[in-house]
Design a protein that fits this description.
Elements (H helix, E strand, L loop, with lengths): L1 H26 L4 E16 L6 E15 L5 H7 L12 H30 L1 E8 L7 H4 L7 E5 L2 E2 L3 H9 L7 E6 L5 E6 L2 E2 L5 E2 L4 E6 L2 H28 L10 H11 L3 H19 L7 H14 L5 H29 L2
Antiparallel strand pairs: 1-2, 3-10, 4-5, 4-6, 6-7, 8-9
C-alpha cells in the first residue's frame, strides 16, 4: 500500500508539472516529440491522431519530461525537417518564458487546491505565535513565560505564526539551547535562554505550546490555503539560505527514499496524504525555479541573460551547460539516496 500511495503521489505531481510545460508549448506552436512520466525503459505509450507527440509512461517514476524541438538535439530536428517556426528557440521571449515556468506554476496551483480541499473537508487549524497551555514542567514556563504572551523571535529570527517557530526550531542542533524572545501582554519583549528536556522516547522538547483556532467554511479554507502556501514557500527559502550559509548540511536533505518513509507514516490518514502531496508539489515547484542549470529556473536565467545582452544564447551551449547541471544533480541525488538508505538501518 505504501508503494502504491508513493507512486500515485509522485505520479500526480510529475504529471501536473509536465502538463504545464506541455500546454504552453502546444499553445506556442512548438513541436513536441514526447510527453513522458518517468525515465528509463518505456512501459506504455500511444499517439493521438494528427498529433506528433508520443505519450508514454516509463519504468522509473522519479520525474518526467516534455521533449520539444529546438530545446537540445538540433541534429534530430534537422533529420525530421521540423519547420523553424515550430522550434523552441525561435519563439518569442515571453512564449519561451511561460513554457519554462509553467511546470512550477502548475505545482503551486496543485498545492493550493489540495490545501483548500483540506480546509473544506477537515476545517482549518490556524496555529498562531500566542502561547497557550504551556507545560509547567518545561523550562520555558519555569523561566517565566505565560499563556497569552507571544513568541516574536527564535534565535533572533522573527516569527509570526507556529509554522515560523517550527521552521527555525528545525535549524537548531538536537538538544541545543535556544533564545526565545517573548512579547508580554503590555508589548514588552524579553529574551529567554531555553534548554530542551529529553523525553522518554529520546526526543527533545522546548515546551512551546501555542493557541490553535479551528474554523470551517469556504472563506476560512481559502485563507488557510493562501496562508499555508506562503508559509511553506517561506520555509523553503529559509532552508535554501541555511544550506548556502552552512547552517544546514547536505545530511538534512532527503530524496525518494526519505519521501517513501514519510509516505509510510502518512498513509493511515487521507488528510495527511493530502497535506504531504500539497507540500511536495509546492516543494518541487520551488526547487524547479532555483536558477541552476537543468532546473527550469536555470533556463529562465538563460532567458534573463539573453534579455540583458540583447541576443540569444546558442542552443548547443545552453544544452551543454544544462547537461553538466543534470549530471551534478544526479550525483547529489545518489549521495542523498545513500544517506537516506543508511538512515533506515
Amino acid at each position: 500500500m505504501t508503494i502504491i500511495i508513493f507512486l500515485i503521489i509522485l505520479g500526480v505531481i510529475v504529471f501536473i508539472h509536465e502538463l504545464g510545460h506541455f500546454i504552453f508549448a502546444k499553445k506556442a506552436g512548438i513541436y513536441v516529440y514526447e510527453f513522458s512520466i518517468g525515465f528509463g525503459p518505456k512501459l506504455f505509450s500511444f499517439k493521438r491522431k494528427n498529433d506528433e507527440t508520443e505519450y508514454m509512461i516509463k519504468l522509473i517514476p522519479l520525474g518526467g519530461y516534455v521533449a520539444m524541438a529546438g530545446e537540445e538535439d538540433l541534429d534530430e530536428d534537422d533529420k525530421l525537417k521540423i519547420p523553424d517556426d515550430r522550434k523552441l528557440y525561435n519563439k518569442t521571449w515571453w512564449q519561451r518564458f511561460w513554457v519554462m515556468i509553467a511546470g512550477a506554476m502548475n505545482n503551486f496551483i496543485l498545492g493550493i487546491v489540495l490545501l483548500f480541499i483540506m480546509g473544506l473537508i477537515y476545517g482549518t487549524q490556524n496555529a498562531s505565535n500566542v502561547l497557550d497551555n504551556i507545560p509547567k514542567d518545561y523550562n520555558l514556563y519555569k523561566l517565566g513565560a505565560r499563556d497569552g504572551e507571544k513568541i516574536v523571535k527564535i534565535n533572533d529570527h522573527k516569527t509570526k505564526n507556529y509554522d515560523d517557530i517550527q521552521t527555525y526550531l528545525a535549524l537548531v542542533d538536537e538538544g541545543k539551547e535556544i533564545k526565545v524572545t517573548i512579547e508580554d501582554k503590555k508589548g514588552k519583549e524579553k529574551d529567554y535562554n531555553v534548554e530542551p528536556i529529553k523525553d522518554e522516547d529520546g526526543t527533545y522538547y522546548y515546551g512551546i505550546s501555542v493557541k490553535v483556532e479551528n474554523e470551517k467554511g469556504l472563506v476560512p479554507a481559502l485563507k488557510y490555503a493562501k496562508d499555508k502556501f506562503i508559509s511553506i514557500y517561506k520555509s523553503m527559502l529559509i532552508v535554501i539560505k541555511s544550506l548556502f550559509t552552512g547552517v544546514l548540511g547536505i545530511d538534512s536533505l532527503s530524496g525518494p527514499v526519505g519521501i517513501y518513509s514519510v509516505v509510510d507514516i502518512a498513509k493511515s490518514s487521507f488528510q495527511m496524504i493530502l497535506y504531504l502531496t500539497a507540500y511536495l508539489s509546492i516543494n518541487i515547484g520551488f526547487m524547479n525555479l532555483i536558477p541552476f542549470p537543468a532546473f527550469d529556473g536555470g533556463r529562465v536565467l538563460f532567458l534573463i541573460i539573453e534579455k540583458i545582452k540583447g541576443s540569444k544564447i546558442s542552443p548547443k551551449v545552453e544544452a551543454t551547460i544544462n547537461g553538466i547541471g543534470f549530471m551534478l544533480l544526479m550525483l547529489l541525488m545518489i549521495v542523498v539516496t545513500i544517506k537516506d538508505v543508511t538512515n533506515l538501518f
